[in-house]
Amino acid sequence: MQKLSLDALAREHLERATAASTGRSAATVYGGHEHALRQTVLALTAGTALAEHESPGEATLLVLRGRVRLTSGDTSWEGRTGDLITIPEARHSLHAVEDAAVLLTVAKHG
Q: What pTM did the predictor assign?
């Protein structure tokens, strides 16, 4: 069994994102290529985005801090601290409206 502080990880990766030229920082906290489930903490500074990309499987985004906007086609969803967003199984992008940290959970398709 493993216990992690998502609050501490969010704080740490926001600090790393602020120092990084890309404005982002991420680390897988559970799973990986050998598991069906993967959870990743991702921090983005305000104005930073993840360009449009394919969905790797069923996925959710838990906003740990800040505000983000998830866009897919003509539809967008805004999430704030504590919100859980279901990621559509279609091309999508993520934009940090303000400095933000999220927990991305992905269950890969068999």
A: 0.92
